[in-house]
Amino acid sequence: MVEIRKNRESITLPLVFPLVVALALSLAASLYGMRWVQQQNTNQRLYEEVYQGQQLFRSLLETEVRQLQIRIEILQANQGLQKAFLARDRFRLKAALSRLGPNAGSVFGMGLLFFDSERKLFFSVDHPNLQEETMDDLALRQAARTHKMAHGLELAKDGRFLLRVVVPWVMAGGGAGYVEMSQDIGSFAPRLKEGLGYEIFITARKAGIDQKQWAAAEAAGRRAGSWQEMGDCVILARTMSTVPGEFCAILKTSHHQGFVRTIDFTENNKHFRGGFVDLLDPAQQNLGSLVMLRDVTSEVVSLWAMIFYLGGVGLAIAVLLFLFFYLHIARLDRRLFKNQENLNDTIASKEIALSQTSTLLQLDIAKREKAEHDFRSMCYQNQLILDSVGEGIFGLDSQGNHTFVNPQAARMLGYEPGELIGQPSHVTWHHSRPNGAHFPDRECQIYQTLRDGKVHHMEDDFFWRKDGSGFSTEYTSTPIWEEGQLSGAVVSFKDISDKKKARHDLVASENRYRAIAGTAQDAIILMDDHGRIAYWNPAAERIFGYTEGEVLGRDLHALLIPARFAPEFEKGLKRFWASGEGNAFGRVLEMTALCKGGKEFPVELAISALCQEEGWWAVGIVRDISERVRQRTVQNELQARLRHSQKMEAIGTLAGGIAHDFNNILAAIMGYTELALLETGEGNLRDTLLEVRRASNRAKDLVGHILAFSRQGEMARTAVNVVPIVRETLKMLRASLPATIEIRQTIGQDLGRIMADPTQIHQVVMNLCTNASHAMRETGGVLKVDVAQVHLPDKLVLSTFVLEPGNYLKITVCDTGQGIAPAILDKIFDPFFTTKSRGEGTGLGLSVVHGIVTSHGGGIEVKGAPEQGTCFSLYFPVLEGVSETMAVVLADVPPTGKERILLVDDEEVLIEMGERILIYLGYKVTSMTSSIEALELFRAQPENFDLVITDYTMPNMTGGELAKQILAIRPGMPIVLCTGFSEVFNEEKAMALGVQGYVMKPLSIHELAEVCRRVLDKPRK
Questions:
Q1: Residue 160 sits in the same domain as residue 202
Q2: How many angstroms separate the Cα of 571 from the Cα of each of 92, 562, 576?
Q3: Which pLDDT tens digit goes with each residue over 90-105?
Q4: Which residues contact 1003 (CB under 8 A, 6 or more apart)?
Q5: Could you tell me if residue 11 is inside a domain?
Q6: What value does the mean pLDDT take over residues 599-620?
Q7: Average pLDDT, stretch 202-212?
Q8: How far apart are CA 943 and CA 380, in angstroms?
Q9: Are residues 964 and 987 in the same domain?
């Protein structure tokens, strides 16, 4: 029995104690807040007063600066001082100051100094005999830099805190210098005290003071403090007779940089407040401090008296509140105590009766709980078995009705477990066959168990679900015997639909994959664990040439792999059969295989491993890639040819650039040579100059060849004599051929002219001769070149050419090399076709020759045989009625004129040469090296010129743009455009622009004279 608690705790203390704590905290918080607010107000007022002191100090400082400046200006106005200052005469300067008064220096300031323009001190009122020395105080440096009045605070070595004012002194008579007056700011202390009501201390940092000089001044009674009083500072001036010790301690520990700071301390029952203001020199470096201090003891005492008064009032109120609440709570506590005693007596009597009844009930409950626990344990175990088993299990009574159904059975049959209890089994889920035909219960093996009491098993039967669907099942029916009587049966079954489907799918899959393998275009080969062929699809028969019957059971590698690869394959097979791993798995390999006839061909092979009970098998998919390899070979060859072609194109571009610059150089050489010939008589010098001209002409032709090589030298066709072109080509070729190749040439005279581009004729001959030399480079031989005129009386048919009757110039190039096979004779003019090794040619040479000859209306005849050499014969139509002698027009005297010509070229050498040639020809010449300036000149005087000759390639503005601008100003203006070479501008574009003459550099005097006359004499529109 539980003992009733007789003693109880009073509620008075738990309720009153928190109240007392709350009142005490409220009172303390109120007093603290009042003190904090008062302190903040005091600090703010103190900061404002310190800031006011700072402003007053600055005002005094500015007033003193103005007074010192006025005094200096009064001195500078004195004529005697001016003369003495100019003369740098100390005695005259001292005398002039004496005339102003016996104590002039003291009257005008604490110190008076005179400096020359180099800031050297040459006179001091305090030290008249002081040696000259260069001063470097900040105010003096600032005055020297700005040439204006400068001032600043500075700490003297003897401890004086000086205000220095420096005024430059510049006089009309010459000479310059500076006058400085200084004032000790210690005198500010009384005035600051009077204005602020604070005691004033002026301190300085010891770092700028010489201790010996300070000691001397202190001994003389000129210092207000002792050197040892402070830490890193000393007191220079003060208005307070005694210095508080606590104030000294603050100065020792708190003298640090900080523009305005406040202090608050107590000493000897006195309370002081004040603040620091930093004193800075012109460089903003701290020199010392202005300290303001005031006795606020009476204010502090008044504040604390008010706080104590308010605290006492608050405490009295709190005590009254405490007494009120305490008496009220105590009365309530006594009432609660009386009611609790009555309740305890009632509970005690009832508890005795309940205790006796409880003992009896507990004994009975214990017995029942044990029996229920045992029963629940057995039921739980049985249910756990039924619920967790993977098969469906249900029980039947002797009539075939359900007595229990586990969840798995209910799920497979599509019912809830409770739905089947008491229902007949056969008519519920075993009533029909899979095809829908009736299934009688006498044939049911489950009911047979109910009849004969034996175990029956069915491997493949059919149960129906609630929704009308069904599934294949395997089941076992076991009888239940109770006291010797057959009371029912237990049936366990499982769904074998997936198993049957898997078996069916396996058969279907095998048939499907056999069909796929049979129709695959790639060979599919299966190798067993002994390296023998176990499967061979139709594609394998087609690729390798063996039938399935010929290869099954035979060694795969001996049959299909070349013998030279056998050791490597045997090594890989051993590793594969041991571990099922190999380097070839997971990759696509290119390799060589053997077909039935023993011929090797390229294949692509992919291998995967297949693990069987007896060991590792391998499946290989083989693809014949003969065509792919051939196409890849062709593609690689074409890419190599393309790269070589691009390289040759880049070389051609470079050659074009070189030709452009070389033309400008040749223009100067040829021009000055012809000018020299005009001024030179017969003799060795003239012969030398003629050789220079001939060499220049050859160089000019060489430039044409370079442009032909770069395929950028397209020019209009003219009547051309090919003989010099062929000879020049052979001369160039000779230098590049080995000594084992002999050149033989047979070139007739007066062969006539053909309408052609000289550079293209050069290119044709060069290509044919280069091919011929290549055919003889190993064995040597003879390169034979013939040029002759032939007459074709009848039409001549040459492979792809048809030549009409008439006269033709025939160029024949023959070699004694390896010749051309008849099988490739029809392909030699195809683009990119070549018999040379990779990197030795692009296959474009003969294709270009074919194109050039065709465009000239000619034809090509090819003769040759293997090991007998090759001959190429080119036919070009001869111009009728044009002979060698008629085609050459020699003009000994160039045409002249008197017109006004504007000559424009950015090359100084060419502009000077052109001007001399045109003046020689009688023209009035204005030359310009800037196209911009030339345009401005023409715009200003468009009628002052009859002809404009301009270069094309110039900075800022090209010749083409200049011509366009000139024609816009004066339409129809005759213009001749010259160029060494341009990729973007040709004769057609020039004529379309309105230019009447387009010539290529270099020009001879005759060519320049002729083009000038041709353009000038052309009728104007």
A1: no
A2: 121, 15, 9
A3: 888 888 887 776 555 4
A4: 667, 670, 671, 978, 1011
A5: no
A6: 86
A7: 81
A8: 126
A9: yes
- What distance in Å separates the CA atoms of residue 903 and residue 975, rounded to the nearest whole number? 10
Is the separation of the CB atoms in 725 and 761 below 8 Å?
A: yes
Q: 861 and 767 share a domain? A: yes
Q: How many CB atoms lie within 10 A of CB 809?
A: 26
CB atoms within 10 A of CB 660: 20
* CB of 372 closer than 8 Å to CB of 390: no
Q: In whole angstroms, give the CA distance from residue 195 to residue 188.
A: 11
* Dihedral of alpha carbons 592, 594, 600, 604, sign: negative
Q: b/e string for 272-300 if b means 16 or more Cβ within 10 A?
A: bbbbbbbbebbeeebbbbbbbbbbbeeeb
55: its two tokens: 């402003």
883: pLDDT strictly greater than 60: no
Using left for φ > 0, alpha for ψ between -120 and 50, and beta otherwise, residue 95 falls in alpha
What is the average pLDDT across 316-340? 77
- Specify the residue for token string 């005259």: 92
The number of helices, as runs of H, and strands, as runs of E, in the chain is 29, 35
Q: Which residues of 844-883 are buried (b: 16+ CB within 10 A; e: fewer)?
A: bbbbbbbebbeebebbbbbebeeeebbbbbbbbbbbeeee
Distance CA 443, CA 437 (A): 13
CB neighbour list of residue 914: distance below 8 Å, 6 or more residues apart: 671, 903, 905, 925, 927, 949, 1008
Cα dihedral 848, 851, 857, 862 sign: positive
Burial of 554 (0-12, 13-18, 19+ CB in 10 A): middle
Which residue range(s) make up the domain with 236?
197-295
Same domain, 878 and 949: no
Q: Answer yes or no: do 857 and 959 share one domain.
A: no
3 state SS of 812: strand
**Domain closes at, from 238, 270, 295:** 295
Contact 753, 878 (CB under 8 A): yes
* 862 and 737 belong to one structural domain: yes
CATH number, residue 91? 3.30.450.20
From residue 689, how far is each of 135, 221, 703, 728 by CA, in Å? 79, 108, 21, 22
pLDDT in tens, 739-790: 888 999 988 877 888 888 787 888 888 888 888 888 888 888 999 999 999 8
Backbone angles phi, psi at 971, to 5 degrees: -60, 140
Residues 6+ apart with CB under 8 A from 980: 659, 660, 661, 662, 663, 664, 667, 953, 1000, 1001
CA–CA gap between residue 619 and residue 405 (Å, rounded): 51
* Residue the block writes with tokens 């601008």: 965
Contact 281, 153 (CB under 8 A): yes
Sign of CA dihedral 554, 560, 566, 572: negative
Helix ranges, 389-461 (H): 407-413, 417-420, 425-429, 445-452
1006 assigned to some structural domain = yes
Q: Which two tokens stand for residue 608?
A: 């995967």
Report the alpha-carbon distance of residue 477 to residue 465 in Å, rounded.
19
The pLDDT assigned to 926 comes to 93
130 shares its domain with 256: no
State the alpha helices, DSSP H only, in 389-424.
407-413, 417-420
10 Å Cβ neighbour count for 18?
10
Kindly report the backbone phi and psi dihedral angles of residue 350, in degrees, each rounded to the nearest multiple of 5, phi listed first. Answer: -70, -30
Residue 159 lies in a domain: yes
Inter-helix orientation angle 626-678/908-920, to 10°: 50
> Are residues 395 and 489 in contact, defined by beta-carbon separation less than 8 angstroms?
yes
Total domains in the fold of the chain: 6
What's the number of CA atoms in the CB half-sphere (13 Å) around residue 495?
16
Do residues 811 and 948 both lie within one domain? no
Residue that finishes a domain, picked among 167, 186, 205: 186
